[in-house]
């Protein structure tokens, strides 16, 4: 070894080891289980040893291993703060694309941290690489380098082996995995690399006979034009602000949450995501079941659930003679949306490019685009129409200066609270004011010509307020406090006479499609007939149905008898 370079190598090794140690010092306390802490440390150390052997550079090997662990830790922490979901390995496969990066770009508080960490890691890596050059493998036989590298790979493979010394990390039950992952984010990412596969709920076929789930079938429509038009609006990040106990001023009250004589059903809605992942709310609505039913891999519903679904609301409506059309304010390749909507059973899919919509487009812009599309579609033939409209303007971030808003929205809604809460809440309420006006315009447009129409609008999930929203006290009834962060709202209106429908303490989103069919007085196939009976027997709840025996029988019926999902 060149004597002049030896001190530089020592400095490089010290920098690499110091970085590795600092990252683990910050990462390990975020894991709540001792076994998970040992697993993370062992995995990082085994990776470092492998890289050191592969490259022949001690400092660079430990630096890169530490940096990778730090990236997982930082990204996992940010995802938990914004979406209340842990970072999973398949996120890199499904969501690391230009459209997702464009969404992240609108969150400066998020990407500034990531950019700073990445820039610092790259600069340090270049410095260490220069100090350590050349590595100890320089001039050695390639076969020897390969042999030692393969040998060094064994500890890493042994650590990651689900049946190895950390079997307890991988033995967390599928249904407990997400909750466990939120408490152990780095372990969750590492273990998800080998376990993120779809899990069909266990059932005993004989249990299907314990309850009568009906046997309805849909005959070919004889006069489909008698059916009402159906319009569904998935309202981005929308809930009744009175769900926050602090939002008790007049500015928190909006007509879109207040029933009127045209309202058939309304109330709290249980969704199955937080802060994002709207596609899982789309799945629950269209498929009539929550994505959580299929284990942690269910969060990637557009990729690995939708193509296997054999039942959906759009398919049921097409069997009744409807034309099914989607209005989507993002590019069609975002989270496989274009293909997923085709799998759901949509005939037409209009994306942001088709509609000339941008990130800054308001709900009014989306409604205007819908009106133009609706006129064209109605002119084609006399078939009834089902529209799904997704809004986007209420998406975060909401931490913007209030003085950029028009009066009275440029004033803090709750002056007694801190500035950050007021900025987020004030921006949110202003956008909600715009959404409220758009919904009113949409209803006026739909009901104006007297054609029987049913309008449904509901919130897909809560806003995150950059991680602040979950700290706001709930204003919901006490019995809903434990699930308050998953409760939004729903409302169904029609312009023809219908008796009001039962009010549920909370309605699971998986039942909303069936309730829409009821309000529209449409016949149901066997799948949605069973969905309706489950709603009645479980009092509007799904994942927490008060009768496990009823749920077991239902799962056996839809999976074992109706084969609603391709296993």
Structure explained in plain terms:
The structure is a single chain. The protein is α/β, with parallel strands linked by helices. It has two domains: 6-192, no CATH class; 207-561, Alkaline Phosphatase, subunit A (3-Layer(aba) Sandwich), CATH 3.40.720. The protein is 46% helix and 8% strand. It has helices at 6-27, 34-55, 58-83, 90-94, 98-105, 108-132, 142-160, 167-170, 177-183, 185-192, 278-287, 301-304, 313-319, 337-344, 352-355, 363-380, 419-447, 512-519, 526-537, 548-561; strands at residues 229-235, 263-270, 323-327, 348-350, 385-390, 453-459, 487-494, 507-508. The chain has an eight-stranded mixed β-sheet with strand order 4-3-5-1-6-7-2-8, sandwiched between helices. Strand 3 (323-327), helix 14 (337-344) and strand 4 form a beta-alpha-beta unit. Helix 16 runs parallel beside helix 17. The longest helix is centred in the last third of the chain and has 29 residues, at 419-447. It is globular and about 85 Å long. It starts with 5 loop residues before the first helix and ends in a 6-residue tail after the last helix.
């Amino acid at each position: 070894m060149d004597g002049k370079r030896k001190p530089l190598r020592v400095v490089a090794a010290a920098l690499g080891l110091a970085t590795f140690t600092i990252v683990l010092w910050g990462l390990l306390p975020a894991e709540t289980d001792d076994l998970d802490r040992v697993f993370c440390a062992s995995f990082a150390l085994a990776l470092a040893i492998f890289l050191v052997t592969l490259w022949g550079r001690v400092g660079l090997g430990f630096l890169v291993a530490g940096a990778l662990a730090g990236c997982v830790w930082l990204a996992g922490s940010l995802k938990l703060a914004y979406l209340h979901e842990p970072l999973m390995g398949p996120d890199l496969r499904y969501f690391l694309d230009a459209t997702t990066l464009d969404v992240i770009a609108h969150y400066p508080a998020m990407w500034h941290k990531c950019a700073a960490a990445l820039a610092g890691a790259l600069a340090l890596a270049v410095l260490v690489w220069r100090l350590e050059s050349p590595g100890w493998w320089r001039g050695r036989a390639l076969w020897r380098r390969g042999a030692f590298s393969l040998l060094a790979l064994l500890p890493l493979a042994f650590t990651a082996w689900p049946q190895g010394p950390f079997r307890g990390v991988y033995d967390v039950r599928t249904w407990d995995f997400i909750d466990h992952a939120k408490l152990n984010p780095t372990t969750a990412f590492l273990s998800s690399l080998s376990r993120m596969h779809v899990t069909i709920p266990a059932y005993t076929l004989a249990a299907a006979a314990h309850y009568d789930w009906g046997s309805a079938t849909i005959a070919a429509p004889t006069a489909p034009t008698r059916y009402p038009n159906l319009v569904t609006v998935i309202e981005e990040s929308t809930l009744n602000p009175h769900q926050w106990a602090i939002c008790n001023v007049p500015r928190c009250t909006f007509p879109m949450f207040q029933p009127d004589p045209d309202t058939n059903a309304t109330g709290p809605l249980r969704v199955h995501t937080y802060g994002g992942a709207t596609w899982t709310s789309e799945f629950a609505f269209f498929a009539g079941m929550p994505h959580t039913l299929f284990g942690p891999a269910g969060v990637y519903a557009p990729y690995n659930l939708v193509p296997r679904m054999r039942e959906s609301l759009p398919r049921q409506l097409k069997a009744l003679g409807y034309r099914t059309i989607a209005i989507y304010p993002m590019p069609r390749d975002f989270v496989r949306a274009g293909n997923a909507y085709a799998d759901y059973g949509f005939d037409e899919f209009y994306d942001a490019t088709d509609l000339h919509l941008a990130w800054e487009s308001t709900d009014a812009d989306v409604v205007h685009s819908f009106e133009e599309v609706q006129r064209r579609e109605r002119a084609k033939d006399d078939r009834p129409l089902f529209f799904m409209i997704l809004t986007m303007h209420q998406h975060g971030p909401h931490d913007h200066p209030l003085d950029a808003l028009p009066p009275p929205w440029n004033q803090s809604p709750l002056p007694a609270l801190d500035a950050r809460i007021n900025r987020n809440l004030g921006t949110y309420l202003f956008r909600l004011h715009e959404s409220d006006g758009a919904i009113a315009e949409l209803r006026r447009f739909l009901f104006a010509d007297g054609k029987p129409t049913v309008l449904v609008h509901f919130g897909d999930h809560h806003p995150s307020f950059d991680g602040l929203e979950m700290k706001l006290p709930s204003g919901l009834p006490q019995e809903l406090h434990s699930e308050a962060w998953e409760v939004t709202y729903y409302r169904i209106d029609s312009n023809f006479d219908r008796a009001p429908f039962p009010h549920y303490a909370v309605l699971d989103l998986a039942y909303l499609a069936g309730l829409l069919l009821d309000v529209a007085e449409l016949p149901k196939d066997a799948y949605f007939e069973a969905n309706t009976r489950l709603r009645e027997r479980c009092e509007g709840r799904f994942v927490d149905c008060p009768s496990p025996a009823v749920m077991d029988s239902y799962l056996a019926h839809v999976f074992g008898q109706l084969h609603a999902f391709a296993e």
